[in-house]
TrEMBL record:
GO molecular function annotations of the record: 4-hydroxybenzoate 3-monooxygenase activity; FAD binding
Lineage, opening ranks: Bacteria, Pseudomonadati, Pseudomonadota, Gammaproteobacteria, Oceanospirillales
E.C. designation(s): 1.14.13.2
Protein name (database record): 4-hydroxybenzoate 3-monooxygenase
UniProt keyword S-adenosyl-L-methionine, yes or no: no
Amino acid sequence: MKTQVAIIGAGPSGLLLGQLLQRQGIDNIIVERRSGDYVLSRIRAGVLEQGMVDLLREAGVDQRMDEEGLPHDGFELVFDNRRVRVPLDKLTGGSKVMVYGQTEVTRDLMAAREAVGATTLYEADNVQPHSLESEHPYLTFEHNGETIRLDCDYIAGCDGYHGVSRQSIPQDRLKEFEKVYPFGWLGMLSDTPPVSDELIYASHERGFSLCSMRSATRSRYYLQVPLDEKVEDWSDERFWDELKRRLPDDVADKLVTGPSIEKSIAPLRSFVVEPMQHGRLFLVGDAAHIVPPTGAKGLNLAASDVNTLYRLMVKVYQEGRTDLIERYSATCLKRIWKAERFSWWMTSMLHNFSEEEDFNSRMQLAELDYVTSSQAGLTTIAENYVGLPYEPLE
C-alpha cells in the first residue's frame, strides 16, 4: 500500500487531520489498533475552543455541531461563598466556546471520512514505523491476518500517550517534562438536565468540583478525590451528596439527580515531550503532551497541533515548502507551553493540596479574589479559556 501521509490513530486528532488533508487533495490512510466502536465508546471532554470550532467548520463537519452544540459565552468561578461569572465574549472581543462532546466530534469525522471513501484500517495490530530519518518512511502492521507495508512520505503520530509513535523515537533524542498532581477527578455522566446553563468551577474546603454538561439533557460532573480512591466505593447517592456539599446552597437546591451512565477516576498530570518530531514522524496531541483537565485544553491542544501540521502539509505539497518541516515542533510547543501554564495555574488555584488550612490555601484564596476583582485578571482567564490564537508557521 502507498499514501502521502500515514496517520496512526483514529481518534479525533487523526480523523480531523485526515479530513482536512483530504479536502486539500492530499492522500492519507489512517491506521487504528482499536475498533471503530471502541473509539466511539471513549468518554472524553466536551468544551471546544473558538479555534477548534473554526477548524471543524473548515473541515466541513460543522452541521451537527451547530445544530446540537451549546455555545457558551461565559462560565462561573465559585469560592469563599462567592459566585463570579467570567463573561468570555465581552472580555475577548466576541470569542466563545462550544459545548459539544468529543464522542460526537469523532462520530461526525468518521461519517465525513466514510462519505468520501477515505481509508481507515481499524483493528490493525503491531503497528510499527520504520526509516523515519529517510525520505521514504513506512509503516508495517497486521490487518485481517495479513502483514501489510504502508509506504508514505510522512507519518502523523496521533495515537495518544501510550501509542507507538513517541516510543519509536530514540529516547536519547527526547526530553520529557512532567508534573504529577496528588489527586484525581472522579467523573460521573448522567441523563439529567445540567444544574446551570454554564459551567461552574467550584473551589471548596472539601475539594474542587466541576459542573459541566454534554447537552441540555445530559450532565457531566466531577469531584476532586484522593488518588487511592476506587470507583466502586462511590455509589451514585454518595457522589450526589458530596457534590451538593461542595456547591453553594442555591446551586445544590437546583441539582437534579439520577442514575449514572458512567463513572471513572482520572489522575491529573502535566506532561510535555520535546521535540515533537523525528525525521518524517510528527507527534500530535496526547502523543506529545498531557494537561490536567481543569483548563479544558486536552482536545483543543490536539486540534492546534493538527492545525499546524495540516497547514504545513499543504505548504509542502502545494508549494514545495519542505523548509518549513523543521519548524513544526517549535511552532506547536510555543502554544502548548502557554496552555500547559494555564491548565497548571487553574489546577493549582482551585484544588485542595492539604486537608488543613495553610499558607497555600490562603494564597489560593488571595489569587482567586485578585483575578476575579480585576478586569485584567478576568481578561487573562477569558483569553486563555477561549483559546489563544494559533501560532503561524512563518
